[in-house]
Design a protein that fits this description.
By secondary structure, this protein is an alpha+beta fold. It is 47% helix and 21% strand.
């Protein structure tokens, strides 16, 4: 088996492949646990996020090989000397109990030893910090029982050799997760605004559209009002004149173009953009669709409270706001009336309004 030599220690290629294959945080956590389970004897292992900033959604992943009592995380952290130590040693890669407690007698007299370590059945630890400049992005902590003995210098060196690989994968996974949250948030905003948005790639293939775009396209194809009557999933299609304009924009070097045979009640704007992913640059086309006659009483942002609802709740709320009964909504969406009633009640509670009348005032 191939190996990597780091600091005169060996980290096997298979361990690194396990780490680098991870694409999500559960994948990475599973890979870390599998690699540590093979290489270092331990009682338990934890991966902390926002360890020094608990107000920023302190979070921990934890597993342990031995059964035993688990002290509450807020108590554990309040008694631990690690937060103060890490603030004083920003950027430190690894540490053990000797760094936290240079005086062995003070360690045995500490509340941390008495109320956490002894309760959980372990007496030594090894911490690995993953820093982003001066901020602690994550903290990995392994622990051992008295029977398992102290962590050795080999254990510490082996973890330090593994550190950059876990760090790189951790950054990639967290960045990917942040981008996913951002995309979901943007998609959610686009879903609730009265603005149809579609995105096409450089080959004019549809990659994203929101509900408003689907209903406007249905109106375009089947006449005004059809978007609220027909099932958007079944009836949606990109009108041929719009598809032709999108192909022209995707292949052109210009920024915008007009659309032929555009219905009078619909406005369309097409724009070619360039997207950069790493070193690769590709083109795309953003299409915005809107109705020409937009109500002047309420801005588009009046619909932003809908972001509090799930996509299914929004769908039901839209139809309820149009005056449809629970039975009519259930028939159109292929749900039971009980489900529709429950989703409307949930939506009213989330939006902080007392009745369907107020829902209509908010959305229509």
């Amino acid at each position: 088996m191939a190996t990597f030599k780091v600091n005169a220690r060996l980290v096997e290629d298979e361990d690194l492949r396990r780490i680098h294959r991870a694409t999500t945080m559960p994948d990475l956590w599973g890979a870390i646990c599998a690699v540590l389970g093979r290489r270092i004897t331990h009682h338990s292992v934890s991966l902390y996020f926002n360890y020094l900033e608990p107000d920023r959604r302190f979070h921990v992943l934890h597993t342990q090989a031995a059964p035993g009592r688990l002290v509450a995380w807020n108590i554990r952290r309040a008694l631990s000397p690690a937060p103060a130590f890490l603030r004083e040693h920003r950027g430190i890669k690894s540490y053990g109990l000797r760094e936290l407690y240079p005086d062995a007698r003070s360690f045995l007299r500490s509340d941390y030893f008495r109320d956490v370590m002894r309760v959980e059945g372990w007496q030594s630890l090894l911490g690995l910090g993953f820093w982003e400049q001066d901020e602690l992005g994550a903290l990995l902590v392994l622990r051992r029982t008295p029977e398992q003995g102290e962590f050795s210098s080999f254990d510490s060196a082996w973890l330090e050799a593994l550190h950059p690989h876990v760090h790189d994968t951790l950054q990639r996974v967290r960045s990917s997760a942040a981008e996913s949250v951002l995309r979901s948030g943007l998609a959610g905003c686009l879903e609730v605004l009265d603005l149809g948005v579609m995105f096409f790639d450089e080959r004019a293939r549809l990659r994203f559209h929101n509900e408003a775009a689907a209903r406007l396209c249905i109106d375009w194809l089947h006449g005004p009002g059809a978007g609220t009557q027909l099932d958007s999933a079944a009836a949606f299609a990109v009108p041929a004149p719009l598809a032709a304009a999108i192909r022209r924009v995707a292949l052109s070097t210009g920024a915008e173009t007009g659309v032929e045979d555009l219905p009078r009640e619909i406005r369309a704007t097409l724009q070619r953009i360039e997207l950069r992913t790493g070193e690769r640059v590709s083109a795309g086309v953003i299409v915005q669709l809107s109705r020409v006659a937009v109500s002047k009483e309420l801005p588009l942002t009046h619909r932003l409270p809908l972001l509090k609802l799930t996509p299914r709740e929004r769908e039901v709320a839209e139809l309820a706001a149009q005056g449809l009964s629970n039975g009519e909504i259930a028939s159109r969406l292929h749900k039971s009336e009980r489900t529709v009633a429950a989703q409307i009640s949930s939506s009213l509670a989330k939006l902080g309004i007392p009745s369907r009348v107020h829902l209509a005032r908010l959305l229509v």
